From TrEMBL:
Belongs to the NlpA lipoprotein family. GO terms for cellular component: membrane. It is a lipid-anchor. This is Methionine ABC transporter substrate-binding protein. The keyword Signal applies. Gene3D superfamilies: Periplasmic binding protein-like II. It comes from Corynebacterium qintianiae. Residues 1-24 form the signal peptide. Keywords: Lipoprotein, Membrane, Palmitate, Signal. It is found in: Membrane.
């Protein structure tokens, strides 16, 4: 029920927020210019990052001009794509897209993968897990991050889930406390750095690391980007279903994995972004599985 309520909230917010689209709402399909270049209207919330500067430059070298539509929030992007205000997006994880599809009754598809941002466990003045048994670990309490944070602890061997617990979306209630080495408390994501500064171990999202001045490389544990548990958090390129075979959009996925963009990603993320190459069939299989879980 919690997942359904959360998904419904996303749908309502998305519908209300479509006015936040930064550019016009007219349909704009890929068009070839007189010099043979193709223009693609792409939506993102990350346009100010170095990776997007490198992406735009590298795409131009490949004959693709990016018309970047800047969004300040997540909710308006998927509706903009569904309504043909943009042609493709690169801003969300598979998990977020699944929540949108399930709540809005849509079927946006994935044409390619980007990076995954590693989620880490941080413990002030510690460089390993030595001595962590018996500690209380703070994790973010929002539905999109809480399950992943708990799974960071599962992968680190600190937490054991009860039999029958949801694999990808566990909550603190799903933890077998008697079989676990640490206890878990869920707090607002913005409060996880405070827990860290108080000396408690905390799983902290990357955006809060930079705000709190915490070195991303100082984590004592982190999720494995190649683990099945991390798959929902792969960032993806999203299109409408009838564009899955669009060669220009597929080329953009290749450009994102270029050395230039990858290096810029490393700079943006403090080394916590890892490029992930998965084929679209596998990515959409993961997506569909999550959609069923959120329905």
């Amino acid at each position: 029920m919690q997942l359904k309520r959360f998904a419904a909230a996303i749908a309502a917010t998305a519908i209300a927020a479509t006015s936040l689209v930064a550019c016009g709402s007219e349909t704009n399909s890929s068009n070839a210019s007189g010099d043979g270049k193709v223009t693609v209207k792409i939506g993102t919330t990350d346009a100010d990052q170095q990776a997007w500067t490198a992406f735009e430059k590298k795409a131009e070298e490949e004959g693709i001009d990016l018309d970047i539509v800047r969004f300040t929030e997540y909710p308006p992007v998927n509706p903009a794509l569904d309504e043909d205000q943009i042609e493709i997006s690169k801003f969300q994880t598979i998990n977020y897209q699944a929540q949108y599809n399930a709540s809005a009754g849509k079927d946006l598809r994935i044409i390619g993968s980007g990076e995954i941002n590693i989620l880490g466990l941080y413990w002030k003045d510690h460089d390993s897990l030595d001595g962590i048994e018996g500690e209380e670990v703070a994790v973010p309490n929002d539905p999109s991050n809480q399950g992943r944070a708990i799974n960071v602890l599962v992968q680190a061997g600190l937490v054991t889930l009860k039999e029958g617990a949801p694999k990808l979306t566990p909550t603190p209630a799903d933890i077998d406390e008697s079989a676990s080495k640490v206890s878990v408390v869920a707090v607002d994501a913005a409060q996880t750095p405070s827990a860290y500064n108080e000396g408690r171990p905390a799983v902290i999202n990357n955006n809060w690391l930079s705000r709190a001045g915490i070195d991303p490389a100082s984590s004592v544990a982190a999720d494995d980007p190649n683990s099945e548990l991390a798959e929902p958090y792969i960032n993806v390129f999203t299109v409408k279903g009838d564009q899955l075979d669009n060669e220009t959009y597929a080329k953009l996925v290749e450009v994102w994995h270029s050395d230039e963009v990858t290096e810029a990603l490393n700079q943006d993320s403090g080394g916590t972004a890892v490029q992930v190459k998965r084929d679209k069939e596998e990515l959409n299989e993961i997506l569909d599985g999550l959609v069923e879980e959120y329905k």
